[in-house]
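re: that complex we talked abt at group meeting.

here r the seqs, copy pasted straight from the sheet so there may be weird spacing, ignore it
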Amino acid sequence: MTVDIGWTGLVLAFVLVAVAIALSWWQRLALERSLVWASVRALVQLLLVGVALRFVLDADGSIAWAWVWVLLMIVFASFTVRVRAREVPGLWPLAIASFGAAAVVSLGVLFGLGVFALEARTLIPMAGLVVGNSMAATVLVSRRVFEELRDKRDEVEARLALGASSADAARPYVRAALRTALIPQIEATKAVGLVFLPGAMTGLILAGVDPLDAVQVQVAVMYLILGSVATTTVVIALGVSRRLFTTDHRLVRIDRPAA
Amino acid sequence: MTVVAGPSGSGKSTLLRLCNRLERPSSGRIWFRGVEIDELDPMALRRRVGMVFQRPTPFGGTVIENLRVADPEIDEPAAGALLTRVGLDATFIGRAAHELSGGEAQRLCLARTLATDPEVLLMDEPTSSVDSRSRAVLEDLARELAVGGVAVVWVTHDMRQLRRLADNVVVMVGGRIAHTGPPESVERDASAAVRAFVAESEGGDE
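got the structure back, here u go
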């Protein structure tokens, strides 16, 4: 049994957006335009992705296009991270490296150990989960490391003056930033199922899969997300920290943003 | 003990930071005991050339954890002895470093630097934000270390402190050395820049 809501279903679902618009209008929230724009944009984006996915998945069973897709995803996500943490220098290559590392580690484990069969149909969504879920944490951790080392310059230099290497001098601040970035993910992992049914599981159940099978996939997905968020944040934190020191263990000048 | 004096912005701190390589000179060279410091490992150099900064910089954690950043092996008796030297005592060992007063924190910073057993001690206006008792402790200990053979370089813009501490004086004005010599020679210097500094410093704050 599968679920196919069809185009009619989609149009009918738009009634829900209409409800939101009506509420916004009634309460004078002035969000009508944003609501329409967001809904239409989501529809168009997903349709384009759907068309592209259909092409990639149908490509004579060849997985090459799927890998191209994954690469583009990493590049685009890295660009987004760079834009959202503009003050951190040299972030783009670092973000590519960290998403790349997370993809290699987590996809390597999932496909290498045969948890999922490696095919375009599994590769793209899995890579999407890795990159998509790591993006927010990557932005958070890179800004945090940058700000800690900028704002605690006195302490960092006092550590250097005691003969600490740049890695040792930065460690307490990098650690604090990593904890801040990872704790929400750990909390989310703990609360899952109690508070909400996560997306992958909901989708599978809606599509008619047995709930226990859906749970198995969902748990694997959660571990995937946890592993990749941890990998990306550690790579990005160490990378940003390294960029802020010279090879002879000096902290580079970091200009404060003009107020 | 060498005192480096001069108005703020004259490059005193930069001079100290160059000596333990927190900065690199854009031109010119610096030697330490006959070796150009660029050829020394910066981490090893900084342990031999310790530095205390203008603002106290206690690290998170307890007092002994602060000392362990400098010397991971330090045990409680040694830590207590070090604290006693800076006029704190062994009861401070377990206290949170961030809860110390400014003067206590600055004395902890000196104790922390001494834990590396430096040959040179760079003091960058260490008493500018501490109470008078802490100032006296820091000054006395620096004198004692200087007598014991540690080369102490003390930065100040205060003429009274200069007279209390200095064996030799370097006056800096506008990034250049304007005067060198024994402390009593400073006031005899006829150059306008040095006289302006002395007048400013004598008339001003402690």
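couple things i noticed - Residues 124 and 155 of chain B are 5 Å apart (CA to CA). The interface with chain A takes residues 20-24, 42-44, 46-47, 50-51, 53, 55, 57, 59-60, 69-70, 109, 112-113, 116 of chain B (CB under 8 Å).
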